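Bug #2210: token dump truncated for Related to peroxisomal short-chain alcohol dehydrogenase?
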Amino acid sequence: MTITKSQDLPNLPPRKVDLFTGVVHHDTYPGIDPVTKSDCSGKAILITGASKGIGRSVAVGYAQAGASHIALAARSSTAETAAAVLSAASAAGRAPPSVLELELDVCDKASVEAAARVLEAQWGRLDVLVNNAGHLARFAPLLDTDEEDYARTWDVNYWGTFRVTKAFLPLMLRSGDKTVVNVTSLAAHFAGIGGGAYHVSKFALVRFTEFVQDEYASQGVLAYSVHPGGTPTELSSRLPDELRFRMTDTPELAAHSIPFLTSKRREFLGGRWISCMWDLPRLLEMEEEVVAGDLLKFKCTGL
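Reproduced locally. Full output below:
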């Protein structure tokens, strides 16, 4: 087993789910370098929750990988992300992408559908959809939960992804790579006290991803559930102390992993759960094992 990490990170014992490829990453690494290992030139990308956190980092990663069109969708201003995207493309020696800033609230159907119309009118195509917008309710046992906060977690994490996918998929089906990345979480694998809203919404999102794959694979769709790693963000700051200490992964890990994953069609990974903490080049070498065992999908043990 190999573990790579940035110099500032503490030594943490890996969990079983981290060890699938035998290498655990907490920082970016040469195998997923966006300049040398990922070619997203010509691709049109849409990222939700792009104003900050993981969304902003992934947008920058796509710029470094040479994406020609990058749409930044969020409720709040994406101006800083847009500037970072153009700067990153220049620093990486890439052509400046066409950047489209979309005001989009994943909880508002009309807002989502309006954004889809704008993108279609501007670009006429979309290759990769990254459903990244997320919300984390305050951890509390069921009887102590704030029902509105609990419901909002579901509205953003599950229904928001549903709304965005439903609105943009018709455009994607007409051309392009037809790739959907649903940013889920390691939390989908675990139960535990207080995390019902977030954990279960991410569990449901993984199954939703499988349905998108199964229903539209015949039309060329590839849908992935992707754990971005445990990164310190505004969202993860709401975690309780006993979980927040694991937020030690750099933003660049997801920022470089997701463009690498979507730079080419990875047919065998469609409908599967993937962790950015794994060694992705090694994961690609495990295709025969993954397919033969129908691995990386949720099942009930013992059945």
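Output looks complete on our side. The longest strand covers residues 69-74. Marking as cannot-reproduce; reopen if the truncation happens again.
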